[in-house]
Amino acid sequence: MDIGEIKKRLQEHFTDGLVAIVGSGLSMASGLPGMEELAKHLIEMMEKITQKEVQKAWAPIGSKLAKGVTLEEALKDIEIDNPVLEHIVCISGRLLESRERDVVNKVYSGELNLPFTKLLPYLSLNSVRTYVITTNYDRLIEIAAEMGGFGVDTLFPGQYYGELNPDLSRESLWTGKLAQKGKSIKRVFRKHLVVLKPHGSLDWFLHKGRPIRCTISIDAPRLMITPGQSKYRMGYEQPFDRHRDIANRAIDSAARFLIIGYGFNDDQLETHLTPEINKGKPCVILTKELSNLTRKFIQGHTSIIAICRAEDGEKGTKLIYEGKEINFPGSRIWNLGDFIKEVLQ
Known about the structure:
nine-stranded mixed β-sheet; four-stranded antiparallel β-sheet; alpha/beta; globular; 42% helix
């Protein structure tokens, strides 16, 4: 199978019923920190907290991180009432928000392009509404959508005090269009993304016991779920539960999947995603590096095309399809920007 045939198959994947799953790899490619950098930052910042109760709770976590244990693994047994969690969310949120601001400034100045903006027309070729499910807290997908002229449905209508209201959020995307005959105005939806964040977002806060969305950072607890036991308990509270429920329904009804920068390391998300892929629904995985979990998952799946960087670095692309590994020297279609340019355009 040559690169031309592969590109043709990839182009055919972008049709009706496509749902996108986006992981941290996409944000990291734009300059946001990954889990490893976040772990180092937490070690540095937690040392500055003097509360004995917090330091006692942090000690075993910090010890694991210092030994090279991943942040997800170090937090997996932490209970939701552990006093260290609110500090982890606060420190993580501030770091991500600061780095996100740097990325957005580069985007607006023209120094950096968000490839997701150019991907959007291909995600929604024949559809007004496109579902994007992300484990990321940042707002780069929302920004990319608006820069591409798309509306965004976050389930929170409003920018500064948006309360969770999926119906009103959807209704806000209606627009008027002049009918073909006469002067009547036809009510239609503008093209938009439904951005679903089952783990929370940088602009979600808890205000007087209720979840709100505010695009300005405020002095209120952020609604972000960390790895560990809190993911299972907080995940059944609002707004996480509503986002996860709609995400699951979108996955169940999808005809095909595009998975970008996601390492198959979230068992909550995969409760629905894995069975649907196991049914044989076509799936394209695009990532810089294939995680061990992803490699294990794609074995035996003939409906999956996995694309990653070749072992020789950025000089080539490795494609895994129907149990075969094919290297394409000189190609970088594992990179989303190159994928759009070389395959879709």
